[in-house]
């Protein structure tokens, strides 16, 4: 885990490794935080909001 200059935490795989497990965990946590099941559409909307809210 690293922190940006703004203080936000960023999660990445180790250097040279794949980040599949990091992404899988993020999707699982996102799904648990919603009152309904996560769908492909809800994940797209969430990632779109995160990307464009910067």
Describe the overall structure.
The chain is mainly alpha-helical and 54 residues long. The chain has one domain (2-52). The chain has two helices and two strands. The chain has helices at 20-33, 40-52, and strands spanning 2-3, 9-10. Strands 1-2 form a two-stranded antiparallel ribbon. Strand 1 (2-3) and strand 2 form a beta hairpin. The longest helix is centred in the middle third of the chain and has 14 residues, at 20-33. It is globular and about 35 Å long. It starts with a strand and ends with a helix. 0% of the residues are buried.
Low-confidence stretches: none
Which class do the helix and strand fractions yield? mainly alpha
Strand content: 5-15%
**Rg calc:** 13 Å
Termini separation comes to 20 Å
Considering DSSP H and I runs of 4 or more, what fraction of the residues is helical? Answer: 40-55%
Q: Choose one word for the global shape.
A: globular
Average the pLDDT over all residues and give the rounded result: 78
Q: Output the strand order for the largest sheet.
A: 1-2
Which series of helices and strands comes N to C? EEHH
User: Biggest sheet, in brief?
Assistant: 2 strands, antiparallel
Number of domains: 1
Can you count the helices?
Answer: 2
The beta-strand count equals 2
């Amino acid at each position: 885990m690293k922190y940006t200059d703004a203080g936000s935490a960023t999660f990445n795989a180790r250097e040279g490794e794949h980040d599949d497990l990091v992404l899988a965990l993020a999707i699982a946590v996102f799904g648990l935080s919603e009152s309904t099941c996560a769908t492909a559409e809800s994940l797209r909307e969430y990632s779109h909001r995160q990307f464009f809210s910067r």
